[in-house]
Write a structure and sequence with these properties.
The protein has 337 residues and is of the alpha/beta class. The chain has ten helices and seven strands.
Length: 337
């Protein structure tokens, strides 16, 4: 019997994932890799103006890669978009440049709380409103009003079913300054972004969602959720940045018009329960890690295995292969292989 969800996938016969796991095991045993990661983290956590601008330009290219693959940015006509975790602003810059009629709203962690500086060109800012806030702290993340000092109203422009496109690219920052920081904030951030996106995207709109590790059961259930709510779902791993990491993008088209699109509100309410658990659940009431069972309202792990495993492998195969090829190249450069 397979012991983990990854083992379940491997049992189907997936050489791409098997190769990736073997490379990871080889790399994690080498001290040189720890030193390389420590160096990378230090540079990222102490980014100067030049490095921020580098990230900005590279993220523009990442969004261009995504758009070239999935055609998610309409080049003409009105386009209203929401960019969660938007700074330094590369994704927004690409959208505004691609569509001269596009107008957007962005939410990003304040700089004085450890967030990135906005590098968006001045000429583009008249079509974009930037709202500095922690996206995990909005009242609308809960199905009922909760009186707690960490919570606040979201931006008034963030109205239900308003946006043609919602981009979810926020990631947990080690530099974040917060009185309520917890190890599971990475899960809270992802769940928060998905709630806000499903609330704000118009029926038939698009979502671009950054995820990690399709072999993780929680990620697999999120992929399934996006797949059943949307007319079409593709996955893509850009080659401009982070090829050695497990991150990738799921691009959903026709959100709300999928096979289970009528269940959108029910799914949002399930996500709100998961947010509540990761924020105020746990033994001490300070939240807890999310796990696969928190998404059983979407699909149980047993049913996921029985009905969706083939589709998941189809969506994950290129992701695993690109990461494995990048790790192989990097490890050889580091003298690990």
């Amino acid at each position: 019997m397979p012991e983990t969800w990854t083992d379940v996938i491997l049992e189907t016969g997936c050489p791409e994932l098997e190769h990736l796991i073997a490379l990871r095991a080889k790399g994690w045993q080498d001290e040189k890799l720890d030193q390389a990661f420590t160096r990378q983290r230090y540079i990222a956590d102490n980014a100067d103006k030049n490095l921020n601008m580098t990230w900005y330009k590279r993220s523009m290219t990442v969004m261009e890669e995504i758009d070239n693959y999935a055609r998610c940015i309409t080049p003409t006509g009105p386009l209203r978009f929401l960019d969660l975790g938007c700074c330094p602003g590369g994704f927004t810059s690409y959208v505004l440049e691609r569509n001269g009629m596009a107008r957007g709203l962005g939410v990003s962690l304040p700089v004085d709380q450890g967030g990135h500086v906005c590098c968006l060109e001045a000429r583009a800012r008249n079509r974009f409103q930037l709202y500095f806030a922690d996206v995990t702290s909005f009242f609308q993340l809960s199905s009922s009003v909760i009186a707690h000092p960490r919570l606040r109203p979201g931006p008034p422009q963030m109205k239900p079913a308003t946006f043609d496109l919602v981009i979810l690219d926020g990631h947990q920052l080690r530099t974040q300054i917060c009185d309520y920081s917890q190890p599971w904030d990475i899960d809270r951030l992802l769940i928060s972004q998905i709630i806000l996106a499903l609330q704000c995207v118009r029926t038939g709109g698009k979502m671009v969602v950054k995820l990690t590790h399709p072999e993780r059961v929680l990620t697999a259930k999120i992929i399934y959720l996006l797949d059943i709510l949307s007319e079409d779902l593709v996955t893509f791993k850009p080659e401009t940045m982070h090829t050695t990491r497990g991150s990738f993008y799921a691009i959903a088209t026709g959100v709300g018009n999928g096979a289970e699109g009528a269940q959108m509100q029910e799914m949002i309410e399930g996500l709100q329960r998961a947010w509540l658990e990761t924020t105020f659940g746990g033994v001490e009431g300070n939240g807890r890690n999310a796990d696969g069972s928190d998404f059983d309202f979407v699909i149980t792990t047993r049913d996921l295995q029985a009905t969706y495993l083939g589709r998941l492998v189809e969506l994950g195969r290129d992701i695993w292969n690109i990461q494995a090829e990048a790790l192989d190249t990097w490890f050889k450069r580091q003298g690990i292989l």
